[in-house]
Design goal:
18% strand, 358 residues
Length: 358
């Protein structure tokens, strides 16, 4: 190596080191809301982690009953629960990277609408979680919907003619439920149980890599008095299994889903999965500027590791009760193409078979 080449390489390494130092010292900036922002309504929901002192009558999973009879096209809300036009625009949530806003439908129901890359994969993920006994919102994807008066502060590719949304996810909590908190993967009343480990496996099945605390919700159900623990945001699914700088191409991407690793390590007692994968490419892609995000995401790696084989096999036995047509229906509901659906279902059935064989 020439002296000049060595000097250049040294300068690059020094620059990367400085980038890492400064990026670790300063937190990533977040947009600040201004007085009078219409989006402040979205903060009526509590996103702070629940304390152990406030946990009572908590539940993470319930017996799903006859899984083979569940309708995965209409999901938990059923055919009658679909959002009904015309829609009235209410408000925008300006505190999220994906465009979200609230509407009211013709039946007087309020819906949270999500646009962008996460809308379609979230439909499939929530249907599969609901099918095997975990809690989820009532949600649907509408191929097209007109929302008069729609006004977004940041735009999306899925908006046409100013007020027409395409492949938009409409979600609402079942009647009588209210979000009261979030919950942490390492601090919750279910840690170590079969049902909790099963949820960890489901995240790997879905390739849901975005497992931060604010994506977990605690709902208060006034009908039963129970606190329902669920993963409330599963949009980063069915694509790559780790965070990247250009995540739009990594969510709901069947090619990335096919390329990703599922089971990565086995022992006689435990099994480890590829999701969530360490975001190793994040440092390279950002030149070290996203080091805080890298180290934050590294803190979730354990969720897919060292899960008892029996617990993983249990989830496989539940998923195996879903028919080929039910799996097709889940992807059809999300408006994936027939070609994408066929490939997704093939990969999913192979993952279920691997779980059953543990």
């Amino acid at each position: 190596m020439s002296l000049r080449t060595h000097s250049t390489a040294t300068s690059i390494l020094a620059s990367l080191s400085l980038a890492l130092i400064f990026s670790c010292a300063a937190p990533l900036a977040h947009p600040q809301s201004q007085p009078g922002d219409a989006g402040k309504k979205s903060h009526k929901e509590n996103h702070k982690p629940i304390s152990s002192a406030k946990v009572h009558n908590a539940i993470l999973w319930q017996d799903p009953g006859d899984i083979s009879t569940k309708n995965l096209f209409y999901g938990q809300g059923g055919e009658d629960g679909q959002p009904k036009p015309p829609f009235t625009f209410l408000d925008q949530d300006k505190h999220d990277s994906n465009p979200k806003f609230d509407v009211r439908d013709a039946n007087g129901h309020s819906w949270r609408v999500k646009l962008g890359a996460e809308a379609r994969p979230e439909i499939v993920a929530s249907r599969l979680l609901w099918a095997v006994g975990y809690f989820a919102d009532d949600d649907y994807v509408l191929p097209r919907a007109t929302v008069p008066g729609l006004h977004l502060h940041h735009t999306a590719h899925s908006v046409e003619n100013g007020d027409e949304v395409i492949n938009a996810r409409f979600a609402r909590k079942p009647g009588g439920q209210k979000r009261i908190a979030s919950w942490k993967w390492k601090e919750n009343p279910f840690f170590g149980t079969r049902e909790f480990n099963g949820l960890r496996v489901m995240m790997a099945v879905l390739n849901n890599y975005d497992l931060k605390t604010e994506n977990n919700a605690v709902y208060s159900d006034k009908k039963t008095g129970r606190q329902l623990f669920l993963v409330s945001d599963t949009g980063a699914s069915f694509g790559t299994n780790s965070v990247r700088m250009k995540n739009e191409n990594g969510k709901g991407n069947v090619e990335k889903y096919a390329e990703s690793k599922f089971i990565t390590h086995e022992t006689n007692a435990e099994v480890s999965f590829g999701t969530p994968a360490p975001p190793a490419d994040l440092l390279m892609e950002s030149g070290g500027l996203l080091a805080p995000l890298y180290f934050k995401d590294r803190g979730y790696d354990w969720i897919g590791d060292d899960i008892p084989r029996a617990d993983a096999r249990w989830i496989g036995s539940l998923l195996d009760q879903l028919s080929h047509q039910q799996l097709i229906d889940a992807f059809r509901a999300a408006q994936f193409t027939p070609e994408e659906t066929k490939e997704y279902v093939s990969i999913l059935e192979d993952r279920i078979a691997q779980l059953k064989a543990l």
